[in-house]
Amino acid sequence: MSDWLHNLPIFWMSILVFAGTYLATAAIYAFVAVLATSRRAAAFKAVSPALLSPLGVIFGLFVVFTAIQVWNDNDHANAAVDREASSLKAVVLLAGSFPDEQQERLRSLIASHIKEAVAQEWPMMSHRKETLSMTPQYLAQALELTLALNPTMPGQATAQREIAVELDSALDARRQRILVSRAGVSLFKWTCLLLQAACVLFAVALPHSDDRLTCGVAMGVFATGVATCLLLIVGYDRPFIGQFAVGPQPLLQVLPEASRVTGTGPSYPPGQHP
Question: Is the pTM of this model over 0.70?
Answer without folding.
Answer: yes
